[in-house]
Amino acid sequence: MNRLLLGASSAVLALAAALPATAQTSPETQATALQDVVVTAQRRQQASQDIGLALSVIGGETLDEKGIEVINDIENVVPNMEVDSQFGGGQPQFRIRGIGAREYSSNNASTVGIYVDEVAHPYTITTQGAMFDISRLEVLRGPQGTLYGRNTTGGAVNIITNAPTADTRAGFNAEYGSYDRYKVEGYVSGQIAPNLLGRLAAVTEQGGAWQYHRDTREKLGDKNKTAVRGRLTWDASDDVTVDLAATYQVDKSDGLGFRLTAPYKVFDGSVTYPADTAWRITGWELSPEMAAVTGRALGSKPGRDNEGLDLNARIRADLGWAQLNSITAYQSFERSEYNDWDGTRFNESDVYFYNDIDVFSQELRLSSNDDSRLNWMVGAYYADESNDGGFYTQFRGADRTLINTPYEQSVEAFGVFTHNSYQLTERLNLIAGLRYENETRSLTTSGTRRLSAPVGPETTYDTDLSEVSGRVGAEYDLADNAMLYASIARGVKSGGFTTYNATSATPFKPEIVIAYEAGVKSDLFDNRLRLNGAVFFYDYKDQQVQGLEYDREAGRLGKITNVPKSEIYGGEVELLWVPFDGLTISQNFGYKKGKYTEYFAIDGAKTDAANPVDGPWDTIITNDRSGEPLQFPKFNYGGSVAYDWQMAGFDLRAETNYNQRDAIYNASSSSVLPGYWLWNANLSMGPSDANWRVGLWARNLFNTYYEETRNGFNGSARPTTSPTQGRTVGVSLKMDF
Questions:
Q1: How far apart are CA 149 and CA 113, in angstroms?
Q2: pLDDT tens profile 428-480
Q3: What is the mean pLDDT of residues 655-677?
Q4: Which tens digit of pLDDT belongs to each residue from 57-115?
Q5: In the 8-state DSSP scheme, what is residue 504?
Q6: What is the pLDDT of residue 515?
Q7: Ramachandran angles phi, psi of 29, nearest 5°
Q8: Which residues of 703-717 are buried (b: 16+ CB within 10 A; e: fewer)?
Q9: Cα gap 150→413, rounded to integer Å
């Protein structure tokens, strides 16, 4: 392992390439040279190239230009990152460098920490309305815990929204495109009173139904999302600043329809559907029983009725010898989501999710406030969470009585952490961080039952976490504009409960990652070329994966289980180049490979010889899966080319961006999801002396067909798949006042 790291580090150094930060040039200013991007990835303002971490930074205007509309889309601009909504649902699942969950319930912590203006979002379902009025996005790869409120094994995504401005400003960005979809985002910002600044931003997205019902021709896919955010910045004194923010979001959008990838015979044999050939075809029907429990009217489409409120107060106090930061936050979110996973008008794989989430958190940080060699920070974090929810299912079979799995979950977490750097010499900086976290999770459920059966007794399950994590590393300045760094980190992710089969909700264990990383950051050729890269090796213990168990009464159950040992290795390279004024080229490449090194898994097709089908499964047969590859795409490659020029008093910009993703094995359907290329294009223009700009855009320019997930819930090896939208085109108008 050490030879692997040393060899890879030497190769990276020889290339003068290391990954972490990719600065972005504003699409409305002509590129002449690369500028330092100031980030807060380490909870203080620093130039991104001065941070010895694998870090990608994307500016807010760049997010708009690349069509990043929901947080799921960031996988197309960040190497070694995947974000998907499992089985087409509304809950995103994040994976960085192969570490991340694949589940559709909303009760377990994410392996990748999601933060909006420093506030942790422990449940990813709450993040779907966060991507508007954005200043920048920071994505950190690798275990995090010594800098942030929560402990994660995969990394962290920091969403930083636009702050109030001292001068009065207003503006909007509107776009209209295929399938009558439109989106309007606007803001107003300025001084409200002496020492008090405010900003109000809002966004709405409507229309866009691109799928249709194979039997009725009814449309599916309309967006119906609205969010509003208010921010206040109050300079209470020369040394104290208070930031207040409130965000409200509502999402009543249609869901995603599934396609049939093979002929499908319904359970009673009355209809056999051929495999769908049309890209946009699907099917659904809400049963009277499901309508009754969801509160939806008969004839309703698959879709969501989600609502969320975020409140937070951030206080910064300059104590002279140190700076004190306090972050107090409250989140409330209600999930109501109906999905039709069989993709037909027969109720053979219909699911309804519901959750009522409340999170209170308090974070305190005290950090050094001078330019001495020692830069230190100590902090504490507390969270109190309640998550009451469950789901109803109506699956293929003679008795399609609804099945309900309710639960009530509570979480209490407390952590203390410190992060320190010491400048040993003019070129060498040493890093050390440590964290202790204690967490208690409790889940109460009456189990999984058919609605025709009586409610069973409630059972409470508990799991505790008491772990130490941390990071040690070094940063060495090879030159004024080139840095080599290396680190060893230990990351921990909470255990939890499998709530989609709560007959046996025994907890799964926390997972632990020991991460070895080395990288280089460099700005070359008079700051016209930024070339960054990193290599890593992960020693993975108790990895949380989708597995099986057998219950004597309930039978075969899907369950989140732990793999004793596995490993992942790989690397990333990011490049940003301005070869001449006006032309900007960015490139990124990520590669990773992993395998189980110790894993005996239950065989889903075999039980004891006396009763191999119906139980009682006194003898469970396991397979040695050591050596099998982990399930993620090995590589992704992406980038963009943009050119700015002036002509006849107009500023013009042409841009194209692209992303290639490797194939991935899909365990839910025992099949391979093919790799694919995605291309987008933009052309915009506006008078050089005016405040408006118009544009033309195309997304999925070459109409590439690709799938996010497949599943075999309704009895076939891979009968249904969640497709993605084909080519869309549109126009945009942006104005600032």
A1: 9
A2: 999 999 999 999 999 999 888 888 888 888 999 999 999 999 999 999 999 98
A3: 83
A4: 998 888 888 888 888 888 889 999 998 877 666 788 899 999 987 777 888 888 899 99
A5: G
A6: 96
A7: -130, 140
A8: eeebbbbbbbbbbbe
A9: 9
Q: Please count the residues of the chain.
A: 737
Confidence category of residue 9, pLDDT binned at 50, 70, 90? very low
Instruction: Write the CB contacts of 617 (distance below 8 Å, at least 6 apart in sequence).
Output: 550, 552, 607, 608, 611
Q: Tokens 């920071």 identify what position?
A: 138
Determine contact, residues 174/182, Cβ cutoff 8 Å: yes
DSSP run (H or E) holding 156: strand 155-161
Question: Which residue type occupies 621?
Answer: I
Give the span between the Cα atoms of 414 and 152, in whole angstroms.
Answer: 14
The answer to whether 230 touches 188, Cβ cutoff 8 Å, is no
Our measurement of the distance from residue 283's CA atom to the centroid of its chain's CA atoms, rounded to an integer in Å, reads 28
Residue 378 in 3-state DSSP?
strand
* Structure-token match 């589940």, residue found: 103
- For the chain, what is the radius of gyration of the CA atoms? 26
The edge-to-edge listing of strands for the beta sheet with 119-120 is 54-59, 134-141, 155-161, 112-116, 119-120
Number of domains in the chain: 1
Q: Could you tell me the CATH number of the domain that includes residue 495? A: 2.40.170.20
Q: pLDDT averaged over the chain? A: 87
Structural domain range at position 86: 2-736
Q: Is the dihedral of CA 163, 164, 166, 169 positive or negative?
A: positive
Sign of CA dihedral 267, 273, 279, 283: negative
